Amino acid sequence: MTAPADAATVVSGGGHSCAIARSGSVICWGANASGQLGDGSTTASSTPVIVPSYVPESLDVTALSAGAAHSCALVVDGTVQCWGENGAGQLGDGTTADSSSPLTVVGVSDAVQIAAGAAFTCALLADGTVKCWGEGSSGQLGDGLATDSGSPVTVSSLTNASHLTAGDEHVCVVASGAVRCWGANASGQLGDGTIIQRNAPVSVSGVSGVTMVSGGTAFSCALTAANVKCWGANASGQLGDGTTVSPRTTAVTVAGLSSPSRVAAGGAHACAVDSTPALKCWGANASGQLGDASTTASSSPVAVSGLTDADALSASSNHTCALTATGGFYCWGAGSNGEIGDGGSTDRSTPATVRGTAGGKTIANGSSHTCVALSGGKVNCWGANAKGQLGDTSTSTATTPVVAFNLFNLTGISAGFAHSCAIESGGQAKCWGDNQFGQVGSGNSTAQFTMANSVSGLSNATLIDTGLNFSCAVTTAAQAKCWGQNGNYQLGDGTTTNRNAPVTVSGLSNVTAISGGGTTTCAIVSGGQAKCWGNNAAGQVGQGNTNTPVTAPANVSSLTDAVAIANGQTHACAIVTGGAVECWGSNDYGQLGDGTNTQRTTPVSVSGLTGATAIAAGDYHTCALVTLGAVKCWGFGTNGRLGNGGTSNSNVPVDVSGLLGAVSLSGGGQHTCAVVAGGNTYCWGYGLNGQLGNGSTADRLVPYEAEKVLEGLIRITTLSEGLFTQSTQPSIGYSTLDVISPLVECNLDGAGYSSCSFPPFTPGSPLSVGRHTMRIKAAPNFLGNDVISYTSLSFAVSVVLPTATISSPVESAQTADSTPSMTFSATGEGALTTECRADSGSWAACSSPWTSGALADGAHSLELRVTDANTNTATASVNIVVDTVMPDTTITASPASLSNVTPVPD
Hints:
Elements: E1 10-12, E2 16-20, E3 26-30, E4 45-50, E5 61-66, E6 70-75, E7 80-84, E8 99-104, E9 111-116, E10 120-125, E11 130-134, E12 149-154, E13 161-166, E14 170-175, E15 178-183, E16 198-203, E17 210-215, E18 219-224, E19 228-232, E20 248-253, E21 262-265, E22 269-273, E23 279-283, E24 298-303, E25 310-315, E26 319-324, E27 329-333, E28 348-353, E29 362-365, E30 369-373, E31 379-383, E32 398-403, E33 410-415, E34 419-424, E35 429-433, E36 448-454, E37 461-466, E38 470-475, E39 480-484, E40 499-504, E41 511-516, E42 520-525, E43 530-534, E44 550-555, E45 562-567, E46 571-576, E47 581-585, E48 600-605, E49 612-617, E50 621-626, E51 631-635, E52 650-655, E53 662-667, E54 671-676, E55 681-685, E56 700-705, E57 713-716, E58 724-725, E59 734-737, E60 743-748, E61 754-755, E62 770-779, E63 789-797, E64 803-808, E65 813-815, E66 821-827, E67 833-838, E68 844-845, E69 850-851, E70 858-867, E71 873-882
Parallel strand pairs: 58-63, 65-71
Antiparallel strand pairs: 1-2, 2-3, 3-4, 5-6, 6-7, 7-8, 9-10, 10-11, 11-12, 13-14, 14-15, 15-16, 17-18, 18-19, 19-20, 21-22, 22-23, 23-24, 25-26, 26-27, 27-28, 29-30, 30-31, 31-32, 33-34, 34-35, 35-36, 37-38, 38-39, 39-40, 41-42, 42-43, 43-44, 45-46, 46-47, 47-48, 49-50, 50-51, 51-52, 53-54, ...
C-alpha cells in the first residue's frame, strides 16, 4: 500500500507510517516489533524517529513503501533497501532474518518505483518490467509459481508497465493505460471477472485510460481521466459505488467525485484527492479512518474534516495519512500503535498533525524569547538572551532569528523563562541558558551559553517541556522525568530539593503528554486522565481546593478524556475528546475563558469553543488553534497578547485577527506565536526584548510576521511520481519555501552541480531512453549561513516513443503525377496527430494516403510529422522528382508506297 512517490511523501503500513521530510530525511513512527521503523531498535514510537541511514548528503531516498511490518526505500541510484520483518524474504536480501536497519535488495539496480504488500515487495524497473520478492503462496510474485522467494524474481509476460501498486496479497500495474493484476483473487481484487487466483498477470475488465492504480487489502482502485473505478471486496462499501454488494469481480465507478487526481486504497476503505472538497474517503470507519469526525462506515465518499490542500495520500489497514501541499503531515484513524504520530495512542476521527512536522516546524515560546525547530533539524531563536537562552554562544538580545549552536536532527523543542531545551532524533535531550536551579540538567548550576548541554542520563526522550525554571521530559518507556527548581514540589519526586539532573516523577506511568507551568506541572496518561502536582495556591492542580502544594501527581477532577494540556503561570487548560477546552486555576484576567473572572479549582468549559486541535498558555492568557487553522485567545489583553487588535482583557475567546492556516502554536509569558502552513512564523503581544522576531522591540496587537527563518527548503513540483515520462526534455518544476531568491543548483545524472533556471529546469539536450536522476539543492542567498536543503527525483524516459514511416513513394522516385500521393503509418503513446507538408511548407493535418497540392516539374520533398499524447514527435521524409513531360511517340514521316519496299528474306 503505497502513496505516489514525491519529493516529500507519506506511506502507511499495517501499524506504522514513514515519510520523506522536506529536508530529505526519512522519518517513521508507530509499531516497531520487527524493526519496521528502521532506527536500529524494536521500540514502538508514537512520534517520528529518523532512519539514520537516510539523511541529506548521505544516501538520497526518492520513494517509500510500507507493508504489514516492513518498509522499503527507493534510493536515487535505482537500488532498493528494506527493513523490518523478513520471515517470507520480503526484505529481498536472500535471507529470512528480520532487520531493524535498512538492507540492500539483491539484483535490483534500476528501479523507478516500489510497492510493498503485506509480506512481499515489488519494484518497477526502468525498462517497464517488474520484479517481486517475499511471500508468494497466493501468486503475488507473478512469476507463474506460488512459492516464496527471498530474492527478486521477474514477473511473467509483463512489459511497458508505468505504475505499480500492491495490496495485501495481490499486485496491479498500469501498462499503456490498461490495468493488469496478479495474486490472490478470492474477493475479485484482480478485476478479471473471476475469483480465481492468478500466478501471472491478467487484464482488468472494463478500465482504460488509467494513470494510477492503488491496491487495498482485498480490493483495488484505478484513477482515470474522469473518475475512480474500484473492484473486489465491498462488504464495508470500500468500492464507493453506494452499495455493499460483495464481491465485485469487475470495476464499478466511485460515486460523487468531481475531478479526482489521486487515489489510495487501504484495508477496507479508500480515499481520493478531489476538487470539491480537497479530500474524500469511503468504506469502513470503525477507527475513524474516513476522517469525517465519525466512526460510521460510508459506501459513498465523505469529506475529510479540515484538509483542503492534500498533495500526497496513503491508506493502510485502519488509518490514513496525507501530506499537504505546504509540507504538513497529517494522520487519522487507528492509533493504538502510535501510527497517528501525534504522541498518543488513541484513535483519531479527524486529521491530527504528526508531531514535529506541522508546516515543517515546531515552535516554542519562553518568557521573553522564542525558538523554532526547523524541518531540517536545526534551531533558530530570537528575543532576550541575558542567560544565553538563544543558543548563539552570546548573551546579546536578538530581534531577528539567530542559529542556535550546531544542533541537528531535532524532533522537539521547548522554552522556559530563560532556558531552552530540545530533543535530538535519537532521544538525547539537550538544554542551554540559565541554570541557576539546575534546569539545564547538566549535573551542576553553571549557565550554559557556549554549547548545548546533554541532559544527564536522558537519552530516550520523546517529548520535552519547560516550566518557569524547570524542565520535564517523557521517555520511550512513557515515564516522566523532571529537573530544576523544586520549591513547590513541581518535579514530582516528593521533595522540595532542586535537582540538576533528571528525577523520576513518582507514581506516574503511561504518560502521553506533559506541560510545565510557573511552579506546577501537569501530564496526561494513557486513556486521557489529566494529572497535576506542585503549587496549588490558585487551585491550578484541579482537585477542588487550594491546599498547600501537592507533592505527587493527583487526578484533575472529572478530566478523563484529555488529549492535550498547557500550563500558564497559575492556571491550566486541556483539550478534551471532540475539541472542547476546559480550564482551571486563577482567573483574574479571564484566562479560563468561561465568561467570568472567578477562580476555579476544578475544570470549567471555555465558552463557545469547539474544534480545538492545539492549546497554548501564557502567564495570564490562553490561546487555542481551531479547525482550518484559525486561532482564538482569551485572558490578559495588555500589550496585545490576545492578537485581536486591542489591549483589553477578555474572559471569552476572541479571534486573532487575520490569522488562518496555522498549524502550530506556542504561548510565552506575554506573547504568542504561530507557524502557518508553508512554515512562516507570526507573533503578537509584548515585544520589548525582541521576542516577536520582526526586527523591532515594539508590541504587536495583531500577528506580525517574524523575519524569514534561516533555512532553504525545496521540493520538486512536477514529475512528482518519479515514474515515466515520454518527453526526452522534461520540464522539472520545483519550489522553495521560507527563502526569497535562493541559490539553486541542479545535478542531472551525476554531471555535477550547476546553477539552474528557476523554475523550471529543462535539460539542454534530449535525454536518452531509460532511467535518469535529478538532484536539486537550495541555500539562502546571503553569506554566513550553511543551511542547505536537498531533494532528489528518479524518473525514466519511456521506451515507447512515436514512429513515423512512409511506405510510398520510395526515396528518389520519379513520377509524372503533379499531385503525388504519399502512403504512411504511425505508432505512439495515446492519441496521435499526423501532419504532412511538401517542400518545407506549412504543416497540415493529414491521413494516409495523403495527396499534395500541385507541384512543378523538378525535385521535391514530402514530409510526415507524428505527435503523441505526450507531445513527443517523430518525422519522416522522402525525396521525389516530378516529371510531367513524357517522351514524344508521334510518327511524322512514312514510306510513300509499300511497293517500293524491298522484302527482307525470312
